[in-house]
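Hey, resending since the last one bounced:
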Amino acid sequence: QAQLVESGGGLVQPGGSLRLSCAASGVTFSRYSVAWFRQAPGKDREFVAATKLNSGNHVYADSVKGRFTFSRDNPKNMVHLQMNSLKPEDTAVYYCAAGQRVITSSLSRASAYDYWGQGTQVTVSS
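The C-alpha coordinates again:
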Protein backbone atom coordinates (compact mmCIF):
# COMPACT_ATOMS: atom_id res chain seq x y z
CA GLN A 1 0.00 0.00 0.00
CA ALA A 2 1.38 3.36 -1.03
CA GLN A 3 2.18 5.86 1.68
CA LEU A 4 3.72 9.32 1.45
CA VAL A 5 4.92 11.08 4.60
CA GLU A 6 5.91 14.75 4.67
CA SER A 7 8.19 16.29 7.28
CA GLY A 8 10.15 19.46 7.92
CA GLY A 9 7.37 21.96 8.45
CA GLY A 10 7.34 24.45 11.28
CA LEU A 11 7.26 28.09 12.31
CA VAL A 12 9.73 30.43 10.63
CA GLN A 13 10.15 34.20 10.45
CA PRO A 14 9.68 36.06 7.17
CA GLY A 15 12.83 35.77 5.09
CA GLY A 16 13.74 32.46 6.66
CA SER A 17 14.12 29.01 5.15
CA LEU A 18 12.70 25.54 5.58
CA ARG A 19 13.39 22.24 3.86
CA LEU A 20 10.44 19.91 3.44
CA SER A 21 10.91 16.22 2.80
CA CYS A 22 8.58 13.54 1.53
CA ALA A 23 9.37 9.86 2.06
CA ALA A 24 7.57 7.14 0.14
CA SER A 25 6.77 3.51 0.83
CA GLY A 26 4.94 1.29 -1.63
CA VAL A 27 5.76 3.88 -4.30
CA THR A 28 9.07 4.22 -6.11
CA PHE A 29 9.43 7.94 -6.76
CA SER A 30 11.74 7.41 -9.73
CA ARG A 31 8.78 5.81 -11.56
CA TYR A 32 6.36 8.64 -10.80
CA SER A 33 5.79 12.27 -11.51
CA VAL A 34 5.96 14.00 -8.12
CA ALA A 35 4.60 17.34 -6.99
CA TRP A 36 4.19 19.64 -4.03
CA PHE A 37 0.90 21.42 -3.38
CA ARG A 38 -0.20 23.64 -0.53
CA GLN A 39 -3.48 24.69 1.03
CA ALA A 40 -4.02 27.73 3.18
CA PRO A 41 -7.08 28.05 5.47
CA GLY A 42 -10.19 28.89 3.48
CA LYS A 43 -8.42 28.50 0.15
CA ASP A 44 -8.23 25.84 -2.55
CA ARG A 45 -5.28 23.51 -2.84
CA GLU A 46 -2.58 25.29 -4.84
CA PHE A 47 0.19 23.91 -7.04
CA VAL A 48 3.73 24.69 -5.85
CA ALA A 49 6.24 22.60 -7.84
CA ALA A 50 6.53 19.36 -9.78
CA THR A 51 8.86 17.15 -11.71
CA LYS A 52 7.61 14.87 -14.45
CA LEU A 53 8.59 11.22 -14.70
CA ASN A 54 11.75 10.76 -16.79
CA SER A 55 12.36 14.48 -16.91
CA GLY A 56 15.11 16.38 -15.20
CA ASN A 57 13.08 19.57 -15.43
CA HIS A 58 11.14 21.07 -12.56
CA VAL A 59 8.07 23.25 -12.90
CA TYR A 60 7.26 25.93 -10.36
CA ALA A 61 4.31 28.16 -9.62
CA ASP A 62 5.09 31.79 -10.41
CA SER A 63 4.57 32.68 -6.75
CA VAL A 64 7.52 30.53 -5.64
CA LYS A 65 9.82 30.67 -8.66
CA GLY A 66 13.33 31.70 -7.67
CA ARG A 67 12.67 31.01 -3.99
CA PHE A 68 11.76 27.30 -3.86
CA THR A 69 13.80 24.40 -5.22
CA PHE A 70 12.49 20.89 -5.85
CA SER A 71 14.87 17.95 -5.72
CA ARG A 72 14.72 14.17 -5.89
CA ASP A 73 16.77 11.69 -3.87
CA ASN A 74 16.07 8.47 -5.73
CA PRO A 75 18.39 6.19 -3.68
CA LYS A 76 16.49 7.21 -0.53
CA ASN A 77 13.13 7.31 -2.34
CA MET A 78 12.54 10.86 -1.15
CA VAL A 79 11.84 14.28 -2.58
CA HIS A 80 12.58 17.63 -1.01
CA LEU A 81 11.38 21.18 -1.29
CA GLN A 82 13.91 23.80 -0.23
CA MET A 83 12.05 27.00 0.60
CA ASN A 84 14.00 30.24 0.93
CA SER A 85 12.97 33.86 1.42
CA LEU A 86 9.71 32.73 2.95
CA LYS A 87 6.79 35.14 3.09
CA PRO A 88 3.68 35.16 5.29
CA GLU A 89 1.61 34.24 2.24
CA ASP A 90 3.55 30.95 2.03
CA THR A 91 1.76 29.84 5.21
CA ALA A 92 -0.15 26.65 4.42
CA VAL A 93 -0.25 22.91 4.82
CA TYR A 94 2.15 21.45 2.26
CA TYR A 95 1.42 18.13 0.59
CA CYS A 96 3.47 15.89 -1.68
CA ALA A 97 1.76 13.85 -4.35
CA ALA A 98 2.75 11.16 -6.84
CA GLY A 99 1.19 10.06 -10.10
CA GLN A 100 2.22 7.57 -12.78
CA ARG A 101 0.34 8.91 -15.77
CA VAL A 102 0.65 12.67 -15.38
CA ILE A 103 0.96 14.43 -18.71
CA THR A 104 2.96 17.64 -18.96
CA SER A 105 -0.10 19.86 -19.28
CA SER A 106 -1.55 18.36 -16.06
CA LEU A 107 1.47 18.70 -13.78
CA SER A 108 -0.19 21.54 -11.85
CA ARG A 109 -3.55 19.77 -11.44
CA ALA A 110 -4.20 18.03 -8.14
CA SER A 111 -6.60 15.61 -9.85
CA ALA A 112 -3.74 14.19 -11.94
CA TYR A 113 -2.04 12.58 -8.91
CA ASP A 114 -2.84 9.19 -7.45
CA TYR A 115 -1.20 9.30 -4.01
CA TRP A 116 -1.02 12.00 -1.38
CA GLY A 117 0.64 12.54 1.96
CA GLN A 118 -1.09 13.89 5.06
CA GLY A 119 0.66 17.23 4.85
CA THR A 120 3.03 19.28 6.99
CA GLN A 121 2.21 22.74 8.37
CA VAL A 122 4.38 25.68 7.38
CA THR A 123 3.78 28.95 9.22
CA VAL A 124 5.64 32.11 8.29
CA SER A 125 5.17 34.77 10.92
CA SER A 126 7.13 37.22 13.01
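The chain is about 0% helix and 45% strand.

Sorry for the duplicate.
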